[in-house]
Amino acid sequence: MHDIEVIENPAAAAVALEPVRSRLLAELASPASAAALAARLGLTRQKVNYHLRALEAHGLVSVNGERRWGGLTERLLVATAASYVISPGAMGQAASDPGRTGDHLSAGYLVALAARVVREAGALMRLSRETNQRLATLSLDTMIRFRSPAERAAFTQELTLAVAGLVARYHDESAPGGRPHRLVVLAHPLAEPPATANSTHVPTEESP
Known about the structure:
Helix content: 40-55%
Strand order of the largest sheet: 1-4
Strand content: 5-15%
Number of helices: 6
CATH superfamily of the largest domain: Winged helix-like DNA-binding domain superfamily/Winged helix DNA-binding domain
CATH topology of the largest domain: Arc Repressor Mutant, subunit A
Mean pLDDT: 90
Number of strands: 4
Structural class: alpha+beta
């Protein structure tokens, strides 16, 4: 079982998004039989088997073994990954593309960049598994609470200069054996808990 699987195929994405089947994928983080799943979900075994066959046909679950139960032999199935992400590539020509977003300071551009990371990294993950080679990646994740919009702007300027300096130092367009890497730096406000049960706070430019 992989930690995460990026679903690229549109048909597989449609199968995984069906509510009962997505619940089955979650339940199959550990091996289980159709009978056990039927009892957990309150469905008939026949209906569970119907959904399991669809998941298996699209490579989302696989057989993990068999066991004898009474006079029958039950198959134990398990999900192919602990969690799943739908690649923007599953949307075909309608998929998000940073090149189609003119405002590079917009939330839409940020989402398009993140979607491209999912699409590109997902393709490389599949290739690394096929070749049994570890994929070299770098991920940084942290949180910062700015005191004011002015300090946020100052941080943005300093970060931009720092990244530009590092890129200028290490980038070599003509190095023999060199390999290009995608570097994306994202920052977005975090939604704060609502002050009351009937109010929701949406971060804006004035409230980082």
